[in-house]
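Please review the protein record below. Tell me whether the encoded fold seems credible here:
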Amino acid sequence: MAVDGPAQNRFVTASREAITSTLPQVLLTDGIRAAYEDGVEGTAGDAAVDPLGSAQAPDNCMAQAHLFVNEGHDLLAAPVLQEEFFGATSLIVRCADMQQLRMIISALERQLTIALHLDAGDQNDARSSLPLLERKAGRILTYGFGTGVEVAHVMVHGGPHTATSAEALR
């Protein structure tokens, strides 16, 4: 999600170019791959979403990465686009302004992580958005991506959602 403008246009163009050279990746099981493909099909089938590109064609148990874009008002009107599914697919959301971006943050389901990618001019907006973000995710990352975590009884994910360890102990 970002406020629409020249910087986001450059990001979209670079992302479109990068994804087309991406190789398909193996998913853990055929069932996970099938669920991923169902999620991609649902996203691609939404009239408010434009496909930007995809990785090279998959074979066997491999999955193809996909990239989509839509407008912030369309995301707010179609909560199904916010549904998470496991796999290498991203939806770039063009927000009209910071007010709409914060409205979308407020409407998001709770997440394990949220990643912020900023430049110097974004820091004040990011800082003022932290109270919203803190209620949505157990981890807030800046300038990076989640590395994945081991699923184990000793792992504490944290965050304000039903998958947290605190919820499991109730």
Q: What stands out?
A: DSSP finds six helices and eight strands in the chain. The beta strands are 2-3, 25-26, 50-54, 62-63, 66-71, 89-95, 111-116, 137-142.
